[in-house]
């Protein structure tokens, strides 16, 4: 059996004092006459079956404890519903891949890892900043595995034809880029677009984009008050000195969907933005690092590259966001002790690195992100290090909230400030306040 790293050993030894469903983790971390398996552990997730299973098989060859750990890919569209039903009926997985924006909502489905086993300090020093939603008041909801940052994909030929050798570094530069690249036909319809911003329904990653703009502007979306209660933060509270971060972000975002503006670049009648970019009709596309393979496959002849997401100005520290995946132990799983041990083993540097490579998504571990590598992998790792996060109370409901906030402005139904205030009120409703 492969020797455990100090990080693994520390976690497993500490867990040795905790009886979880009658299983002592410490007994699994020592050699000698101990069992060389943690038992059957079933993992559910929405990431690629072949990549995940291949790495699991390779890891099991080096560490027999993982010999009965299996992974099953599920449909992302129905994952939450199926998981909830399976856990209620006792047929669910022992571990499941949890996205960090579901951590607040799904915390009741998991066995919380106490800080006595994985301290907050150790968590923060080991895992990327964007993994913070996995931290609860009483422990760790899921052990971070992957961090998928937003990046800027850019069409080299379209930018070159407009006189640009590089994509914009700052958001204000996009106004000029949009005026030079976006083209309309005689009827006023957009035939070439600089970037897909301003709408929601056909802008891939619209929610992540507007959330990032808010964070870059110095705002937040939710925050804890002094009583420890999660509250809305889209609109400034009475008596609090605050810049109108959400309003400025929303005003900028919707600018590009206003037909009366010279930088008009997008409307909801256009194709979905990832498809428009891969077709060569949109010059700039904001997507996640994990989308690189799909974009390449959709159009192998597309002459494009990747760059950091634009920032507000050079005086601020760069801010980005990422979708973070973690391994969560099901509260109703049949093998909770084995599940938590498997989670620690899978996020070890020996396994987390290969999983990151196989899935094409940066690791959530700081030490792996800091390792020198080549090409796009090095770039994506650096963007994952920059990434931050906000605590999402219910991803599906907040998606509706963001869509309404944007469309209330683009339709002219509400002024920007009014749309922000209504969104803030809706966030309070989602939070049950």
From TrEMBL:
Matches recorded under Gene3D superfamilies: Periplasmic binding protein-like II (3.40.190.10)
Name of the featured protein: ABC transporter substrate-binding protein
Protein source organism: Candidatus Kaiserbacteria bacterium RIFCSPHIGHO2_02_FULL_55_20
């Amino acid at each position: 059996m492969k020797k455990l790293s100090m990080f693994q050993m520390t976690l497993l030894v500490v867990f040795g004092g905790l009886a979880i469903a009658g299983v002592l983790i410490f007994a699994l971390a020592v050699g000698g006459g101990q069992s060389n398996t943690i038992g059957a552990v079933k993992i559910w997730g929405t990431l690629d079956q072949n990549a995940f299973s291949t790495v699991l098989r390779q890891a099991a060859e080096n560490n027999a404890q993982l010999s009965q750990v299996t992974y099953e890919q599920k449909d992302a569209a129905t994952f939450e519903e199926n998981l909830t039903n399976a856990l209620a009926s006792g047929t669910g997985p022992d571990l499941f891949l949890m996205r960090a924006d579901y951590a607040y909502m799904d915390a009741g489905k998991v066995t919380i890892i106490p800080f006595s086993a994985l301290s907050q300090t150790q968590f923060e020093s080991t895992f990327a900043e964007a993994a913070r939603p996995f931290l609860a008041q009483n422990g760790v909801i899921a052990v971070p595995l992957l961090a998928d940052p937003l990046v800027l994909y850019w069409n080299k030929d379209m930018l070159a034809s407009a006189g640009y050798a590089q994509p914009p570094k700052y958001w204000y530069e996009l106004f000029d880029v949009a005026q030079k690249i976006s083209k309309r036909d005689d009827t006023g319809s957009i035939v070439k677009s600089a970037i897909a911003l301003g709408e929601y329904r056909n802008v891939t990653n619209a929610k992540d984009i507007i959330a990032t703009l808010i964070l870059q502007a110095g705002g937040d979306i939710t925050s804890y008050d002094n009583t420890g209660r999660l509250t809305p933060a889209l609109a400034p509270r009475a008596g609090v000195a605050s810049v109108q971060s959400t309003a400025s972000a929303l005003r900028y975002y919707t600018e590009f969907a206003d037909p009366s503006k010279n930088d008009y670049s997008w409307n909801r009648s256009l194709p979905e933005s990832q498809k428009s970019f891969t077709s060569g009709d949109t010059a700039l596309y904001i997507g996640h690092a994990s989308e690189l393979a799909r974009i390449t496959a959709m159009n192998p002849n597309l002459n494009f590259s990747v760059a950091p997401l634009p920032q507000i100005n050079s005086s601020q520290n760069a801010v980005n966001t990422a979708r973070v995946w973690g391994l969560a132990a099901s509260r109703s799983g049949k093998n909770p002790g084995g599940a938590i041990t498997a989670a620690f083993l899978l996020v070890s540097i020996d396994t987390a690195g290969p999983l990151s490579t196989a899935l094409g998504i940066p690791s959530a571990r700081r030490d792996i992100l800091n390792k020198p590598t080549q090409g796009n992998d090095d770039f994506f790792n650096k963007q994952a290090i920059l990434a931050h996060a906000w605590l999402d109370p219910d991803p599906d409901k907040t998606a509706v909230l963001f869509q309404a906030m944007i469309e209330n402005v683009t339709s002219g139904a509400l002024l920007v400030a009014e749309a922000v205030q209504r969104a803030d009120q809706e966030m309070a409703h989602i939070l049950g306040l």
